[in-house]
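Our consortium's second objective concerns turning raw sequence data into structural hypotheses that experimental partners can test. To show how far this objective has progressed, the report includes one record in full. It was chosen at random from the queue rather than selected for favorable results. The single chain below, 382 residues long, was entered without modification.
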Amino acid sequence: MSLAEALELDHVESHLHPEGSFDVADHPVPTGREEIWRFTPLKRLRGLHQDADLSGDAFKVDVDLAPGVTAQSVTPSESARGASGYVPTDRVSARAWAAASSVFEVSIPAEAEIEQATTIRLTGLGVDHAAAGHLLIRAGRFSKSVVVVDYNGSATWAENIEVVLDDGAQLTFVTVQDWADDAVHVVTQHAQVGRDANLKHVAVTLGGDVVRASTSADYRATGGSVDLYGVYFADAGQHLEHRLFVDHTAPRTRSNVEYRGALQGQDAHTVWIGNVLIRKVAEGIETFERNDNLILTDGAHADSVPNLEIETGEIEGAGHASTTGRFDDNHLFYLQSRGIEEDEARRLVVHGFFHDIIRRIGVPELQERLVEAIEDELAGVV
């Protein structure tokens, strides 16, 4: 039996895995009682989950291409969208797929080793007219590259992103959600990882009124590796939601998920849903997922739900962890006992909390920007 045949037989019936379909009609308007929507403030999505017109064009895109990387905007019929094997599993994703008038394709040539990051900057110019986008990134065989997508401005934006790693490719893919306070962004990202390929996916979420990011990955063959890292900081009234799903669809694959978030202000709300599925065919895999939340003030709330589904006992290792809490008084006492003022001690604790994730990004200019952004966030509370 081939790997494809094994996967065809290994269908998973679970409320965590809705049936995929490109037909919007197959995805009922969510009520909030569904498992995948129960944390999302639907009334604040401006109709993205219902029937809001997605033909808006109040945005601009600027691209800085690294040497050797190519990019083009093509019509859906001319594009290679669907190359990742993704099929929409919720109504917003299906609506964005149907409404996107173009697909922006980024291609990294085979065997190219590119140190400079390719950066795509999307700037929203208003929230009144919702829009839909589709991005496809393909990393050629044995290539090594970095792609950054940087969001800013005001927008009501529904989006699908596909990432395809051919065999042996190494890709660092970073998204920076630095929206204005009134932005609403619902994005679904799916990555397919080839044989012995490695994806490092980094999500940085700082801005926006409501941001809901669903990220999934699966494997086309053995030896693939996925690292999903995230940093988020929610202020008063913000809703920042991250949903992660790693589907181990091949044996001897690896995944690691680690997200860290901080919250401050009344009604600041973060949601982290982690899920790893180890299929029967996925023997010899190794996986771990972790989420840590630091609550800085009263009135903030973090939901953290790790899930682990195992269909074979022939694995190297699997686990998950989640923590949510306030400042560690022992850390503060240690710093203050050495002459550091309380406000500065709190800043040091928060920076230390995020440091381990930030250092793994591997893009120095982005790391510096993130440290400065965290400092700006802290200015209003400590």
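The partners drew two points from this record. Confidence is low (pLDDT under 50) at residues 1-9. Helices lie at 3-9, 91-99, 329-336, 342-358, 364-378. Both points have been shared with the crystallography group to help prioritize constructs.
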